[in-house]
Amino acid sequence: MECARYLEPPAETVTDDSPGLPTEFVERLRAIFGNEADAVLATFGSDRRPGVWANPLRTQQPIGTLLAGLGVVSEACPWLTTAATIAPEAKPLVTNSAEVAAGALYVQNLSSMLAPWVLAPQPGESVLDLAAAPGGKTLHLAARMLCEGELAAVEPVRPRRFKLSANLERCGADGFVRVYPHDGREVGRKTPARFDAVLLDAPCSSEARFDPRNPATFAYWGPRKLAESARKQKSLLRSALDATKPGGRVLYCTCSFAPEENELVVAHTLRRMGAAIELTPLELPVATARPGLHNWRGKSLPSDLTRTLRVLPDRQLAGFYLALFAKR
Fold first, then answer.
1. To bridge 79 with a disulfide, which of 118, 143, 276, 285 should be the other Cys (CB 3.0-4.6 Å)?
2. Catalytic: 147?
3. Is 291 annotated as a binding residue?
4. Residue 20: its pLDDT value, please?
5. Could you give the angle at the alpha carbon of 239 between the alpha carbons of 308 and 243, nearest 5°?
6. What is the pTM of this model?
7. Which domains does the chain have, with CATH numbers?
8. Contact 253, 115 (CB under 8 A)
9. Catalytic pick among 77, 171, 204, 255
10. Predicted pLDDT of residue 19
11. How many C-beta atoms lie closer than 10 Å to residue 91's C-beta?
């Protein structure tokens, strides 16, 4: 995700239990995760196992066979047969391989693969990816749809849109996916009640990607960044829901831990749209899934937020948040 460039000093850091991370960020994680905070903090600064996906639009070979052909030992993903994880030191060998260049393999964290798995688009449906670049989730959607139906991908930022289009072409989905340069906040107004399913992997503060070994990953983080992200996320989510047919579904997700970008965005949308929408209870096939917060800093939130899920980071999964809406 792109960071806003603010004229403010980098956040203060700590050097005790999580070297190099901003003090306020560490304190917030402790407030969010309670007795699980130490386990979450321990994942920062360590290399988790990269995920790799065998793209069925380019190959029918099993993921294990493809990786073994590169001399890479892998661990199968138990909930997605086309995915596996590899040792961190093997990542350059895979990313520089002919298989990746040909679009047969795609390197992506397993948490990102959860979003298309949850939305579960079907062949013949009309589907929208509202913040699509760089295109990894778009490719999963196309593959799940068997390139049957309609799949629109929206990306307003020109360089990111070029990267999206290049990935779609390399991986065999360019003839199916239509890419649009629109501002996602305007799509619901322009195409009301148009889609059966919408994926909104919202631009966020990318807290799950903070690395104390690289201060640039959190140099612009702070209350101002969280507030700016939340404003945009609320507009994007309303647009996604407006673009959805009655009876359709919208998946909202972020790679942030901040309640301001997760539960508070969802709560705001529930209040604004009332009986027109509801949250669908989520179940994920991962051990680190936890219910969404129902209170934050003394403020009670709708009990329905426990139907949303947070994915805590571990040796394979990056931090993630998911909320699935149904439009009545």
1. 285
2. no
3. no
4. 87
5. 95
6. 0.93
7. 110-327 (3.40.50.150)
8. yes
9. 255
10. 57
11. 16
